[in-house]
Every structure is written in structure tokens, then in C-alpha cells.
């Protein structure tokens, strides 16, 4: 069944707006409490490139227990987080790291975009660049 929870996306750069949000003290504190680690101030963006990948991600969001991330600030949206393990490439390394996929509850949010948060700078740590594939195994919420 673990294969059913693996999803691969392509690394891409976006607007860079997440860094300032992820650096806010209340965001750091809330995410540490809810997902178990203080995330690096920024996100890694993954683009799902197939209809099957998008369908699997939608199914995982419905079937895997996520963590609610309520915003105490009315100017920010609520979100859900899904704990996951990240692999460098498809089957390239056995080294998997605990991360989370943050899903903003925003109308019209792209269904093919995943925002990965981690307690480390993912691109630098895994030496990946835009265009590289990354595979995530969605594991849900911490127990």
C-alpha cells in the first residue's frame, strides 16, 4: 500500500512569497506544535505533471489524516499539513527525510502544486534544482 501514497513532482521556483510567511514567529510556533518541527523559512514547490499524479494527490488529501493549521491572523488563510518523507529523485537514495506538505485553504489554489516545508533548506540539502524530480511518501499526521 505504501506505493499508493508515493507521489512524484518536478521542482520549480515560484514567487518566493512563502519565505516571509514561514518566518513569522506565530507560524513557526504553530507548525512546531502541530507537525513536530520548526520549518525552514521558505517552501520547496513541486509541480505534478500527470493527471494520475493530480488524481492521486486529491485522493490522498481526502483519505490521509492531515493536520489543521488555523491562522490566528484574519489576513492569512487556514491550511492543512500532511507529514511525508522525501526522497531525492525516484529511487535514487534510501535516505528519506521527514517533511510536510502545506496546503493553503485558498479558493482556486492550483491542484498540481505542492508546497513542501522542512526543518532544512530542501534544495541545498538534497542538491536539487528546478526541473529535478522528487518523490514524496505521504504518511499523514503525527500520532
Helix share bin = 10-25%
The description of the largest β-sheet is: 6 strands, antiparallel, barrel
Q: Please tell me the overall pLDDT.
A: 84
**Parts with pLDDT < 50 across at least 5 consecutive residues:** none
Q: How many beta-strand elements?
A: 7
Overall morphology: globular
Question: What value does the Rg take, in angstroms?
Answer: 14 Å
Q: Strand share of the residues?
A: 25-35%
Structural class: alpha+beta
- DSSP summary: helix tally: 4
* Ends distance: 19 Å
Q: Widest sheet: strand order?
A: 1-2-6-5-4-7
Report on the structure:
The protein starts with 5 loop residues before the first strand and ends with a strand. The longest helix has 13 residues, at 51-63. Helices cover 24% and strands 31% of the residues. Strands 1-2-6-5-4-7 form a six-stranded antiparallel barrel. The mean pLDDT is 84. The chain is globular and about 35 Å long. It contains four helices and seven strands, in the order E-H-H-E-H-E-E-E-E-H-E. The protein is an alpha+beta fold and 143 residues long. The protein has helices spanning 18-22, 25-35, 51-63, 122-126, and strands at 6-12, 44-47, 67-69, 79-88, 97-104, 113-117, 133-140. A hairpin with an 8-residue loop joins strand 4 (79-88) and strand 5.
Supply the key terms.
alpha+beta, 24% helix, 143 residues, globular, six-stranded antiparallel beta barrel, 7 strands
Topology:
Elements: E1 6-12, H1 18-22, H2 25-35, E2 44-47, H3 51-63, E3 67-69, E4 79-88, E5 97-104, E6 113-117, H4 122-126, E7 133-140
Antiparallel strand pairs: 1-2, 1-7, 2-6, 3-4, 4-5, 4-7, 5-6
